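Could you join me in thinking about how sequence relates to backbone shape in a protein? Label the sequence line and the structure token line clearly, so we can match residues to local backbone shapes. Once you have written the record down, we can walk along the chain together.
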Amino acid sequence: MNHNSAIILAVGGAWKEYAREHNIEDPLDKRLSLMDKYSKKNSDGSWSLLSESQYSLEDQEKMKQWQEDKYAYMRARDRFEIEWIAERVGWDIAYQVAVDWNNEWNDLVWYFTESHTPCEYDGCNMFCKNFENCIKDGFKSGTD
């Protein structure tokens, strides 16, 4: 296993622990449990699943809400994980992961670079939005 794989496994475990401690439920898990309620085992051993239109009205509303909640959940997870990586491995690695994981719904690069600077973790970095100011200010620590 390479270093990056170990980081990804560790951060996934850290998120699961954090979510458990803070009672954060994955909307996908909720959806899957509800889908299980509307599935049945056939005599040949296969499974049949009713379409969502066949769910009770209450359960249809739950499914709709959980579908909407999934992006907020994933955004919170990704932000937690990128900060965890920055704290334990460094800004450079976290920034690269943010680039790799960035997409239209999680705006991870924007979030990470607006919320954190390399000097919080590793010291100055020419890719930081404040690098030009650091040059002018003599590369002072972000905690000064």
Observations:
- Residues 57-88 form the longest helix (32 residues).
- The two ends are 39 Å apart (CA to CA).
